[in-house]
Amino acid sequence: MKIAFTTLGCKLNYAETSTYERSFKDAGWEVVPWTKQADVYLINTCAVTETAEKKSRNLIRRAHKTAPDARIVVTGCYAELRKEKLLQIDGVWKVFGAEEKKQIVSSVNEEIRSALSGLGMTETCHSPAPKGLSTTETCHSPAPKGLSTTETCHSEPRRGERISSPNVMGAYSTGERTRSFLKVQDGCNNFCAYCTVPYARGRSRNIPICECVKMAQNIAAEGVKEVVLTGVNTGDFGRTTGESFLDLLKALNEVEGIERYRISSIEPNLITPEIVDWIASGTKFQRHFHIPLQSGSDTLLRRVGRRYDTALFASRIDYIRQALERPGEPKVFFGIDVIVGLPGESEELFQETYAFLERVRPAFIHVFPYSRRPGTRAAEWKDQVQDSVKTERVAKLEALCEQLHSEFVQANKGLKETVLWESSVKDGIMGGYTGNYIRVEKPYNPSLVNTLEEVVL
Questions:
Q1: Which of 78, 28, 35 has its CA nearest to residue 53?
Q2: Running DSSP on this structure, what letter comes out for residue 148?
Q3: How confident is the model over 393-415, as pLDDT tens digits?
């Protein structure tokens, strides 16, 4: 049986799709390119914007056109939010929401096996758990250095809290020789006014530290040197197991073979001084932080329900710089998410955001025009911003981003940094990223692939 995969959306989705792919391979399936004929197509969808939903529907129709008799499996955020709508699209066979992801491989295998048996065929499909994870085993791996076994491998609730076992699927990406995305957390409890994520992915929950360590060990066994920690609200780790995000970082830091870690998307109120101080003490965690701001206007932050103000955000940036930026050493890379055109964003409030970004000076700004999401509070507000105004503001912030990124690269000129060289080659040139996420290139040298090299920027 042949199966093809495609993914829309965030790093979390890519980690999950890669885990599905490994599991189907272990079950005896042949994985083929998305554009080729397959018996089953699995589409991991996104619903963060109206455009993402449209792309998801187009991918389904394209798969059905490529192989009209194939079974199409849909999962991801759009699958959770619009299950009945998706089931009405020609070719869609199964739709798996947020609470059903663990059953995808076993469910597909069982039904395909049943169909084959009905045709008198003898081929069978096995459905083992994803590599390195068992559906029945409990974590009993040795505790990472400095942590007790009860803290790490039994996931006991703390502070007298009674917590049931979370329904969350561990996942990590494979396929790249140098970098892997490791899912450690899922869901969100914030319910910001503009966001569908809590509805699409459920409440905040996490994988126990011991399982995260096992997945990191599997990644290391494949020769990967860098791991990016991913989650919907990564810093909220531990909510369902009573563990802490800092304990997770300390445990992962002890995994042999992984040389570098990055933290993907951590809320400013959750990146505590204790976490920053520990990273600054000399760890594998890099001078690279991805922190969502969404707006530089306190008026808008309060209105949409963010759990911080610009003063707290700026203080976190300042604290990180003071802890990690030392004379003669590389600067800290900050990537900041900003939503342009939130309901009620007047020109004055937009200018507050622009001025705030000029003040904190991130290395990169991820700019998103606000997309009106059905079912959210903000979708009902009357003071929506015109699309043409959003487009103008996006352009202004993208121009500011180019300026700030150029200044960041210039500020690192002449400093020593370490590059992890990647395998891709274009016109005889190879590239890689420094610890503080500056892209570096040099003539291709195959002996350098997946190695760390100190360079002068």
A1: 78
A2: -
A3: 999 999 999 999 999 999 999 99
- Which run of H or of E encompasses 191? none
| pLDDT, tens only, 167-204 | 788 999 987 778 999 999 999 999 999 999 999 999 99
Architecture (CATH level 2) of domain 2-118: 3-Layer(aba) Sandwich (3.40)
The residues, any chain, with a CB within 8 Å of residue 133's CB and separated by 6 or more, are 170, 211, 214, 215
- Cβ atoms of 436 and 260 closer than 8 Å: no
Q: Is the distance from CB of 143 to CB of 149 less than 8 angstroms? A: yes
Residue 39 CA to chain centroid, in angstroms? Answer: 29
Q: What pLDDT, on a 0 to 100 scale, did the predictor assign at position 415?
A: 97
String of b and e for 319-355 (b: at least 16 CB within 10 Å)?
bbbebbeeeeebbbbbbbbbbbbbbbbeeebbebbbe
Ranges of each domain in the chain: 2-118, 416-456
- Taking the C-alpha atoms of residue 236 and residue 295, their distance in angstroms, rounded to an integer, is 21
Short-list 62, 8, 63, 2, CA closest to 28:
2
